[in-house]
Amino acid sequence: MIIKRLVSRYLKPYFWKSEQNWLRLCRCQHYSTNKEIEEYLNIPVEQVRNFSIIAHVDHGKSTLADRLLELTGAVKKNSGKSQILDSLQVEQERGITVKAQTASLLYDYKDKRYLLNLIDTPGHVDFCNEVYRSLAACEGVVLLVDANQGVQAQTVANFHLAKSKDLTIVPVLNKVDLKNADPDRVCLELLTLFSIDPDTVLRISAKFGTGVENVLQEVIERIPHPQADRSKHFRGLLFDSWYEQYRGTLNLIYLKDGQLNVGDEITSHLTNKSYEVKSLSILTPAETPIHQLVAGQVGLVGCNMKNSKESIIGDTLHLKNVKVEPLTGFKPQQPMVFAGVYPADQAQHVALRTAIEKLILTDSAVTLTPDSSPALGQGWRLGFLGLLHMEVFCQRLEQEHGAEPIITAPSVTYKLKLKNPKLISTYGEHTIYLSNPTHFPNEKDVEEYFEPCVKGTIVTPTEYLGDVIALCVNKRGVQQSCSNIDDLRIMIKYFLPLSEIVLDFHDKLKAVSSGYASFDYEPLGYHSTDIVKLNIHLNGNPVEELSRIVHKTKVNSVARDIAFRLKETIPRQMIQIAIQACVGSKVLARETIKAYRKDVTAKLYGGDVTRRMKLLKQQAEGKKKMRSIANVRIPHETFISVLRK
User: Fold this and answer.
1) Taking CA 358 as the corner, what is the angle to CA 291 and CA 381, rounded to the nearest 5 degrees?
2) Which of 80, 299, 388, 619 has its Cβ near the most Cβ atoms within 10 Å?
3) According to the model, what pLDDT value does residue 91 have?
4) What Enzyme Commission number(s) apply to this enzyme (predicted)?
């Protein structure tokens, strides 16, 4: 009671701006004096299990995690709360897991107390990076499959990912209580696809808790303990991080060797910067402060890291002035979808930049580079793993940081080899790089164009091969090889332009293959191409903000699409507006926005018809004069609408 009064009187005023931090502090009061905290430190490595729950979307991962938390006493039963580990607002609204969450649980089995470090992972393919780095801190996984829907796309991907890391797999069938559930059929699928013995598959109902305790017991029996040595010097793998206003960057680490105490000096292997450990805690799932972490455990470290450039996912942390061999990290997933992010008002540039940097701390899959637009000003080019990933990231920017970003889709960077001596002297070199069409030189001044290309690897079921090949051909792909993986799957390698895959290729590939095809790529540098600058003219005047760089084979379709969308978005005005999409002096597409008409003969009564014709002629001459001197006003929303596609 004394501690609660002191905290309430002296510390609460500093946390009143952040309700989340204050609630976390209140939750920590109970655990800081609880004797069970010492048990976390005294549990031997042989009684520690680190595991993840992996599955396809909506197969019941978060529900199973809730039952495990209740079974181990981490949360109270019938508390009225569900999806406890889905703490983000966007997760609760969309009903999906976006962020992998960790919980350290104590469980008694055969007269021994075990420490179970559980990581609940997302199921959507756009968040596979969360799964990928979570598995780096595990020795085994619970592969959850819906007994009604059976094996699906992400089930296959997650299984092969876990197998590639030599992790122990505990297969579990969920939702066996459903009327249409067919566990025997799904067990046969697991046997056919993964060679999993049906007798080893657990059958549970996470909703009602049926058979959930068997899952914990099988995790202890099947999954090996960490190969950790507490007698060595400290060595830890940083696999997650996030930012808090009053504490800076918090890093979630897996201790491979040694121990870590509050006050120790630690060093980052990649940045070579040193920090003093200010706080240590474990997630139960509430944050629980402790004074020491030991090898085999997963814990949260606060050490005053300031920004995302210092906290690098996959980094190895070690004691200062102690040389250790860095841990095998993991290669981050390559972004599939690129978008430009700009502030609605340039006065919000600094605030938006800060919000993006803080959010990237929690999502290492997002790449960030500066960008600019003639219409929208200074901004950034962000890379995402998919369209849903991009939507969730932008929604989190708005909900968690109050930002109002404008999202666009910029082009890739091209390379141009110049032949005009004046331009060569201006740029100081024969080759230039540009992504902004405004700076695109005249065709006569360029000797050769180059665009970035990639080698794409596609793994797809054989039944979707025809649709996948048609998609690649439509994206200017050139097939390099084709080989059978087994009787059901085939691997194709394609030479693809980067500009054709950065926006929607991955999404369309999933559509034509019912979500079963996977795609990866590696850069091949710049290759010769044939590109042109597509100019947009309004009443004969070029609008540089709407111009873009397009390949010659697709310039006609792109021109018609832009002209039509401009006709739909530019409001009618007092003059007629001619929209022309041109390459050089050649018009490829044209649309016309009719002017508002005014009935100038409304007050004309009687008289000869020539009086009427005279008034109409005067109006026509006036509109012609207006068209020659007037400027077409394009709303800001029109630029946003066109640049977004």
Assistant:
1) 150
2) 299
3) 56
4) 3.6.5.n1
**Residue 177 annotated as part of some ligand binding site:** yes
pLDDT at 98: 58
| Residue at 427: amino acid letter | Y
Express each pLDDT in 210-226 by its tens digit.
888 898 899 999 999 88
Question: Is 76 annotated for ligand binding?
Answer: no
Please check if 318 is assigned to a binding site: no
Q: Is 160 annotated as a binding residue?
A: no
Summarised one tens digit per residue, pLDDT across range 539-572 is 888 887 788 888 999 999 989 988 998 888 888 8
pTM of the prediction? 0.67
Q: In this predicted model, what pLDDT tens digit does every residue of 82-104 receive, in sequence order?
A: 555 555 655 555 556 656 678 88
Residues 6+ apart with CB under 8 A from 442: none
> Within its chain, how far is the Cα of 602 from the centroid?
61
**Residue 602 annotated as lining a ligand binding site:** no
233 has binding-site annotation: no
Known binder of ligand: residue 409?
no
Give the per-residue pLDDT at 173. 92
Asked whether 21 and 246 are in contact (CB, 8 A), the reply is: yes
User: According to the annotation, is 126 in a ligand binding site?
Assistant: no
Coil, helix or strand at residue 61: helix
pLDDT band with cut points at 50, 70 and 90 for residue 410: low
What's the one-letter identity of residue 344? A
Alpha carbons 381 and 254: distance in angstroms, whole number = 32
Asked if omega into 285 is within 30° of 0 (cis), the reply is yes
The answer to the question of whether 182 is labelled as a binding residue is: no
- If one counts every other C-beta atom within 10 angstroms of the C-beta of residue 21, the result is 16
Q: Are 306 and 328 in contact (CB under 8 A)?
A: no
Q: Answer yes or no: are the C-beta atoms of 248 and 276 closer than 8 Å.
A: no
- Nearest 5°: phi and psi at 587? -90, 120
Q: Across-strand partners of 446? A: 418
Yes or no: say if 481 and 559 are a contact pair by the CB < 8 Å rule: no
The annotation status of 525 as a binding-site residue, yes or no, is no
| CA angle, residues 191, 193, 199, in degrees to nearest 5 | 15
Q: Which two tokens stand for residue 389?
A: 């990933």
Is 537 known as a binding-site position?
Answer: no
Known binding residue 60? Answer is: yes
124 among the known binding-site residues?
A: yes
Q: What is the pLDDT of residues 540-549, one digit of tens each?
A: 888 877 888 8
DSSP-assigned beta bridge partners for residue 410: none
Q: Output the 3-class SS for 17-37.
A: CCHHHHHHHHHHHHHHCCCHH
Question: Residue 313 above 90 pLDDT?
Answer: no
**Residues 223, 170: contact at Cβ < 8 Å?**
yes
* 453 DSSP β-pair partners: 497
pLDDT of 37 reads 63
Mean pLDDT within 399-408 = 79
* Close Cβ partners of 362 (under 8 Å, ≥ 6 residues apart): 99, 240, 241, 242, 243
Per-residue confidence (pLDDT) for residue 87, from 0 to 100: 55
Instruction: Find all residues with CB under 8 Å of 626, minimum gap 6, and list them.
Output: 574, 575
Contact yes or no for 477/509 (Cβ under 8 A): no
> Which is higher by pLDDT, 170 or 331?
170
The answer on whether 379 is annotated among ligand-binding residues is no
Q: What type of residue sits at position 475?
A: K
Q: Is 146 annotated as a binding residue?
A: no
Task: Tell whether 58 is in a known binding site.
Answer: yes
3-class secondary-structure state, position 248: strand
Contacts of 80 (CB under 8 A, 6+ apart): none
